[in-house]
Amino acid sequence: MAVLPEVAVYWEKDVETMERGALEALQLERLRDTVRHAVNSPYYGPRLQQQGLSADSIRSLADIRALPLTEKQHLRATYPYGMVAVPRDWLVRMHHSSGTTGMATAVFHTAGDIDRWSNLLARSLYMAGLRPGDVFQNMMGYGLFTGGLGLHYGAERLGCLVLPTGVGNSHRQVQFMKIFGTTGVHIIPSYALSLVRVFAEAGIDPVADLPLRIAVLGAEPHSEQARRKIEQAWGVTAFNCYGLSEICGPGVAFECPQQQGLHIWEDCHLVEVLDPVTREPVPEGQRGELVITTLTREAMPLLRYCTKDLTAITSAPCPCGRTHRRLARITGRTDDMLIVKGVNLFPIQIEQALMGMPEVGQSYLIVIDRENYVDRLTVQVEITERMFTGEPAELEALQARIAHALREETMVTPRVELVEPGTLPRTEGKAVRVVDKRGD
Ligand code: ADP
Ligand code: ZN
Fold first, then answer.
1. Can you give the pLDDT at residue 100?
2. pLDDT digits (tens, 9 = 90+) for 327-375
3. Ligand having the closest approach to the CA of 309
4. Which of 19, 190, 235, 277 would be a feasible disulfide site paired with 431, CB 3.0-4.6 Å?
């Protein structure tokens, strides 16, 4: 009987399935190297010296808590070159964060950094099921934003044919999918939802007419319900991809085919989950702020970088065989928290309640203002075409159902406005989900 060749499911089996003890030993060695190297940056050098910290201070991974936390404001204060730990002529690339929450930060890479980052993305895309020969349409902004070039290099490294279409020009995007036989895409989830209408306008049924199999979704928080909506409408399996410019970009953590959390690539990143206020570690499984130390960055090593992103970590074994721990879906940043009538809520809670309803279309907008000095929460919801042209009584019933679901989820009673499909403002980058008029 012929022996079938083993089907490779890993890009780098030895690293991805490394026994925990060995992985942690590798992390410790790399952490010590990182501290040794960080001393070369104008920012960390004096700081570590003042506190009497060096690689010798780190004898176990737990000793990381002796190191200072690094905040986005430190990157801003040392802008542009203050965090660089190598001679200027080693730098080959600069990226900028999107500046979603204020002044953007500049991030530099050496050739080695780009090489390792590309490899992490090739590893991630391979894990999602992409293979050489796949046609990968990278619908993310090229340029300063890391989503474009980051995935571009990763998909090329893997051996895909990459279509660097960038964002926008939606009609051409869907035509390209048909002409070139796109099998995988990388796209911002809110843009993936808004393209559903463009497919319809172009008379293309992505499920029946296109060979699409895989969507990589990243750059903004999105709910499980939104993922399922995209999967159904596009006929794909969708994978959550997390990253941030300061750490490298997309590919810091990525979902495996189990779709039960994102494997954080621990050979390159050491992660902690801390209480955002006390900055003490939270117990495993509990949500907190993700704090990342880079383990292989040359140009700009970062020690205990506070991402402000909220997630939880699990070390439960994953059936895929990878030993790198998993992060829960990122539900937003600490800054995204809204306080409405004294109640704390996150936009993602509203999305979860909305996107599970089949009558709801592709977009929504949260508006907060004040009426008679009292906060007022309005949620504008695009509904499906069929629903929009339906009976007024049906619309009223839907409005009441949405208000009820939102109240259950958030403890705040909103006003719900149902709007025509395609009428809420669209962005080509990260979606703007909240308009807060209380400061006006
Ligand atoms: P900025 O911080 O200015 O938006 P970046 O472009 O570097 O700059 O964006 C990184 C941020 O985007 C992350 O810190 C996180 O808040 C968000 N993000 C990226 N990927 C995801 C994801 N898969 N899920 C949720 N949020 C994400
Ligand atoms: Zn897995």
1. 76
2. 999 999 999 999 999 999 999 999 999 999 999 999 999 999 999 999 9
3. 1
4. 190
Tell me what the mean pLDDT of segment 392-399 comes to: 94
Residue whose CB lies within 8 A of the most ligand 1 atoms, among 70, 94, 100, for a mutation test: 100
Structural domains in the chain plus CATH codes: 1-333 (3.40.50.12780), 337-436 (3.30.300.30)
Average pLDDT over residues 219-226: 96
Mutate to test the pocket of ligand 1, among 70, 140, 220, 302 (most ligand atoms within 8 A of CB): 220
In this prediction, residue 165 carries a pLDDT of 98
pLDDT at 1 over 60: no
Closest atom, ligand 1, to C-alpha of 245: 7
HEC string for the chain: CCCCCCCCCCCCHHHHCCCHHHHHHHHHHHHHHHHHHHCCCCCHHHHHHHCCCCHHHCCCHHHHHHCCCECHHHHHHCCCCCCCCCCHHHEEEEEECCCCCCCCCEEEEEHHHHHHHHHHHHHHHHHHCCCCCCEEEEECCCCCCHHHHHHHHHHHHHCCEEECCCCCCHHHHHHHHHHHCCCEEEECHHHHHHHHHHHHHCCCCHHHHCCCCEEEEECCCCCHHHHHHHHHHHCCEEEEEEECCCCCCEEEEEECCCCCCEEECCCCEEEEEECCCCCCECCCCCCEEEEEEECCCCCCCCCCEEEEEEECEECCCCCCCCCCCEECCCCCEHHHCEEECCEEECHHHHHHHHHCCCCEEEEEEEEEEEECCEEEEEEEEEECHHHHCCCHHHHHHHHHHHHHHHHHHHCCCCEEEEECCCCCCCCCCCCCCEEECCCC
Q: Which of 222, 309, 331, 336 has most ligand 1 atoms within 8 Å of its beta carbon, as the pocket-test mutant?
A: 309
306 lines ligand 1 (CB under 6 A): no
Average pLDDT on 261-277 reads 98
